[in-house]
Amino acid sequence: MTAAYRKIPRTRTVWICGLSVISALCIFYISIPALKILYSFWQMEKCPLESSRMLNLDNRIDAELDLFSRHDVQTCTSWSAPIIWQGMFEPDDYDQEHKSKGSSVALTVFAIGRYLDAYLKEFLHSSEQHFMLGLPVTYYVFTDTPEKVPDIKLNPQRSLKIIQVERHKRWQDISMMRMKSISEQIESDIRHHSTHVFCFDVDQLFTGRFGPEALGESVALLHAHYYRLPKWLYTYDRNPKSSAYLETGDFYYHAAIFGGSWRSVKALADACHRSIMQDKKNNVEAVWHDESHLNKYLWLHKPSRLLSPEYCWDTSLGNRSDIQVHRLLWAPKYYNKLRIA
Ligand code: UDP
Ligand code: MN
After folding, report:
1. How many CB atoms lie within 10 A of CB 121?
2. Which of 124, 164, 245, 328 has the fewest Cβ atoms within 10 Å of its own Cβ atom?
3. The CA-based dihedral angle spanning residues 229, 230, 235, 238, taken in that order and rounded to the nearest 10 degrees
4. First and final CA of the chain: distance in angstroms?
5. Residue 17: per-residue pLDDT
6. How far is the CA of 3 from the CAs of 9, 10, 11, 13, 15, in angstroms?
7. What Rg do the C-alpha atoms of the chain give, in angstroms?
8. Residue 121 φ/ψ, nearest 5 degrees
9. Which of 321, 268, 322 is nearest to 83 (CA)?
10. Which ligand 1 atom is nearest residue 288's CA?
11. How far is CA 15 from each of CA 11, 28, 29, rounded to the nearest angstrom?
């Protein structure tokens, strides 16, 4: 066979491969926005209640929630808990109600290893602009390097406590073991000083009002990436050997924020910690760590209040007509640089 004779099929193969790669790339780039549009067409279920007076009320102001001001989203759950969206509530009413009831809030946040330098200062600074303004707030910063916690000027009625914790070797353990520290701190301190607790990831920034409308007995957050997806796409833990195993659930909750009365947050943290330790004993680890355990717990113990993804939005999802305000945004993630092991 001569070289010239072999050249023709080889050139053709190169062309076919090249065109296939280019077509695959085109399909990929076209399908991302198309998928995003598809997501937004997926209808959320409708709130079945006829009036907000039929809600399971966390407080008397909830009876004034306008469940019908938002036709584009789900405003209550099948167990009659409200889902809080812009336009449903009167901010001043919640401010007044919680001031007069004497509500006070403990905010827990962990900044361990490189996460402290990367995020803590901006997190606290933005929180002072937007989180529960007008109510007494105590920050509980859990860190392995207390000396590096930035000195932030706090508004009146707000204070900050630093709690030294060990730095687990694996980032998965840093994330999961927060449950134990939260529970211990509630028992030894928070329960004597605050009526409510909110637990936050540090890799986020407040950008709008995050006020007392978010306070309730047991509060969970709809994950920005999943609130418009069909249930079969939720990433619950599907391993029957894990104690976080969940076949079906109500929603996919995001572990970056959860809260409630100190009593109910302690119960949640204790239960999640117990099931995390049970998994360790059985040598398994849930697919999304503490988030998988949280989802299991909230399936068994329904939250009394849900926060819409306005309360923790990821701007990479683009503009959505149903997200009318950004109250808190995901900060950029630099896993390669920040996670230690
Ligand atoms: N965290 C930390 N140091 C670490 C890993 C995690 O302080 O090395 C804390 C931090 O508060 C972080 C949270 O654990 O926000 C959860 O981890 P991460 O934000 O990386 O999880 P993701 O948001 O990606 O699920
Ligand atoms: Mn995070």
Report:
1. 15
2. 164
3. 180
4. 56
5. 73
6. 11, 11, 12, 16, 18
7. 23
8. -60, -50
9. 322
10. 25
11. 6, 20, 21
Tokens of 112: 């361990």
Between the alpha carbon of residue 146 and those of residues 54, 182, 274, the distances in Å are 47, 17, 28
Ligand 1 pocket test, candidate residues 107, 122, 174, most atoms within 8 A of CB? 174
- Packing angle of the helix pair 262-281, 290-300 (nearest 10 deg): 120
* pLDDT tens digits along 107-151: 999 999 999 999 999 999 999 999 999 999 999 999 999 999 999
CB of 220 closer than 8 Å to CB of 253? yes
Instruction: Kindly report, residue by residue over 185-213, the tens digit of the pLDDT.
Output: 999 999 999 999 999 999 999 999 999 99
Q: What is the pTM of this model?
A: 0.90
What is the per-residue pLDDT for 66?
98
Burial of 222 (0-12, 13-18, 19+ CB in 10 A): buried
- Ligand 2 centroid to residue 330 C-alpha, Å: 8
Q: Is 341 in the pocket of ligand 1 (CB under 6 A)?
A: no
pLDDT tens across 9-44, in order? Answer: 677 777 777 788 777 776 765 666 566 555 555 789
pLDDT the model gives residue 22: 78
Nearest to 214 by CA among 279, 122, 308: 308
Distance CA 91, CA 114 (A): 36
194 Cα distance to chain centroid? 22
In one-letter notation, the amino acid at residue 81 is A
Q: In sequence order, which residues have a C-beta less than 8 Å from that of residue 190 and are 6 or more positions away? A: 106, 138, 140, 197, 262
Using CA positions, which residue lies closest to atom 13 of ligand 1?
201
Q: At what angle do helices 178-185 and 262-281 cross, to 10 degrees?
A: 140
Q: Annotated catalytic, 147?
A: no
* 111 among annotated binding-site residues: yes
Q: Is 202 in the pocket of ligand 1 (CB under 6 A)?
A: yes
d(C-alpha 5, C-alpha 13), whole Å: 14
**CB of 339 closer than 6 A to ligand 1?**
yes
